[in-house]
Amino acid sequence: MKREVWEPEAGVQLDSPKQSEPVYLDEDSEGAIASIHRPVLMHYQVAMSQPESHLFEVTLQVSGWQAKALDLKMPVWTPGSYLVREYARHLQNFRAVSSEESPLPWRKLGKNHWQVDPQGTTALTIHYQIYANELSVRTNHLDGSHGYFNGASLFFYIPGYEQQPIQVEIILPKSDWQVTTSLPAISEAANTFEAIDFDTLVDSPFEIGTHQLFEFETLGKPHQLAVWREGNLEIDRLISDIQRIIQVEANLFGGLPYDRYLFLLHLSSHGFGGLEHKNSCSLIYQRFGFRNKDKYDRFIQLIAHEFFHLWNVKRIRPKALEIFNYEQENYTPSLWFSEGTTSYYDLIIPYRAGIYSIHTYLNALSKQVSRFLTTPGRLVQPLAESSFDAWIKLYRQDANSPNNQISYYLKGELVSLLLDLLIRERHNNKRSFDDVLRRLWEQFGKPEIGFTPEQLQQTIESVADIDLSDFFQRYLNTTEELPFDSYLEPFGMRILPDRDDSLPVLGLTLKTENGREVIKFVESGSPAQQVGIDAGDELLAINGIRVSADQLSDRLRDYQAGDPLKVAWFHQDELHLSTLTLAEPRPTRFQLIPVPHPTRKQEQLFHGWLGVSLGEIM
After folding, report:
1. How far apart are CA 528 and CA 524, in angstroms?
2. What is the CATH number of the domain that holds 185?
3. In-domain check, residue 264
């Protein structure tokens, strides 16, 4: 069913109190008008009278309702996190009343679908609670220190009325708590905000509590950084680096597409993650992860990634995500670009911003290449399939995932690297993947029109000025190995495996858990798998001597490929003994390094790519 907002033309008579009010038309499959409905007023109230209970108390007031039934649906996923999470499972104590507080009958028609019988009333109130005790960027969390929620996991939408404004009022449980969100406040009502439609409500998380709030200006626009909990964060340094990232990314796209922007940061004991929104982002990171240089660089890359998404994904997005269907999976083969290209830029943006050095950048890129080349699943799952199957695979990792999957973040990042190098070589650095992004921004991002996979390829081809059908077929639709050296060689670079750490291959990953040596992963076709060792088993000994996770690598240094190894392990509480044959060593680390004796042309191309000479990294 197609829904459109329609304003009556002059002379058109409708049973409407004001001719200027918009009327909503529902069309059937043949384009005929199936029904007409007027706007309704929707006002949410979110309370948390006992934060320690982890229960948000939500009230929805609907005014001006005229239909025979009120249907309410809760999203099953949230944009940016491609997994059906069944948010309705956290809902409890649903009830509906009239304006006179008389109970109204209701029934549940599906896992996320409630239907209320108004019994002739035009003003209805819906009450329910949402259990919120999962601290992540895509869910809700409420305790004695704060409340955080995402719209998709807290609010209903009314089918057919998704384009109407929605007000949200927050009832604070304590006088010293404050509310921070990217939604505009309604000046005449305390702690009340308005979203222009349901998509905007979903896209605007709330932080409620005693968080620290820092305000700063960049490129003439206001920004906020809200920080929940304490850590070893140096706030002045972080804000300075955020400003650099904003400036570099804005320069790439030609300005900032918002009036103001909010960074929400949750500090936890071990968390890591981010979720992009149109005018904000949510971040979670280790509270003491800011003094160590490598950890701080990783956090800066996370910020660069989520901020980059305000262009790539939130505005430049696949056709399949142009209009969100909140009830089911929204399939696209193009997440390799939406997430992978963003990952390619989240490494290089901090380098362009002067936050870290060329050596840090190349080391970070080398780590990504190493991750890719040591993931067996790269030879099983094509990149486009990885994107399409995100809903059932990427967010549902199991013991076999490294054997049969490759992340579209990771491989998409490296495919973007190859495309950038291809364009730069063909055009002597006068064009790059930056130009691809700018063209996509002009054609699809500014008007917010979704692109098809064919249009994405055509745009890249138009910048490269070459037919890329063979490239896309090989590296998106098959598992053919990525030819790194072929694309790096013109820039005087190559991939070199580090063979100093190579050990004979046993084919398992071990971790100490509660005093047991638990096997977490067994590589397909490895010596360990061939004798029946499985993930979840407990490794006891090799060659009759007990072994632990921190000893395994050192123990394997005493053997060579082809040596027999007696292994003892428990499988489902049964003792197993077997002899396996160790396989040939394989490198586990790879490094981007300059080629010996680079040519003048290679020197020029490298300098045009990264702005320094090859001699500076030798």
Report:
1. 9
2. 2.60.40.3650
3. no
Mean pLDDT value across residues 591-607 = 97
33 and 117 in a single domain? The answer is no
Strand 545-546 versus strand 538-542 pairing type: antiparallel
Per-residue pLDDT averaged across 559-578, rounded?
97
pLDDT reported for residue 500: 67
Domain end point (choices 148, 176, 210)? 210
- Assigned token pair, 468: 């890329």
Residue 431 CA to residue 487 CA, distance in Å, equals 16
> 142, 179 in Cβ contact below 8 A?
no
CB 204 within 8 A of CB 151: yes
- Token look-up 């586990």 returns 588
| Domain-located, residue 231 | no
How many degrees, rounded to 5, is the angle at CA 522 between CA 520 and CA 527?
140
Q: Give the domain extent around 516.
A: 503-581
Gap between the Cα atoms of 152 and 90, Å rounded: 12
Closest by CA to 379, choosing from 480, 508, 473, is 480
Any idea what DSSP says for residue 442? I
* CA angle in degrees (0–180, nearest 5) for 500-506-510: 95
Q: What pLDDT is attached to residue 38?
A: 67
* Residues 28 and 57 both lie in one domain: no
CATH number at residue 346: 1.10.390.10
Same domain, 11 and 128: no
Residue 17 has a pLDDT of: 32
* 437: pLDDT strictly greater than 60: yes
540 and 444 fall within a common domain: no
pTM (2 decimals)? 0.93
Query: If DSSP codes are grouped into helix, strand and coil, which group holds residue 378?
Result: helix
Asked whether 341 and 411 are in contact (CB, 8 A), the reply is no
Distances (CA, A) of 14 to 25, 28, 32, 52: 12, 20, 17, 51
Using the structure block, give the residue that is written with the tokens 């609907």.
62
Angstrom CA distances, 553 to 501, 503, 567, stand at 9, 8, 15
Asked if residue 542 lies in contact with residue 554, where contact means CB atoms within 8 angstroms, the answer is no
Number of domains in the chain: 4
* Amino acid code (one letter) for 352: R
Torsion of CA 393, 524, 533, 499, to 10 degrees: -110
CB proximity list for 61: less than 8 A, separation 6 or greater:
41, 42, 43, 44, 45, 123, 124, 125, 126
pLDDT in tens, 331-351: 999 999 999 999 999 999 999
Instruction: Find the CATH number of the domain harbouring 536.
Output: 2.30.42.10
pLDDT tens sequence across 10-59? 333 333 333 344 454 444 444 444 445 568 999 999 999 999 999 999 99
Average pLDDT over residues 487-505: 91
pLDDT interval class at 61 (50, 70, 90):
very high
pLDDT of residue 37: 55
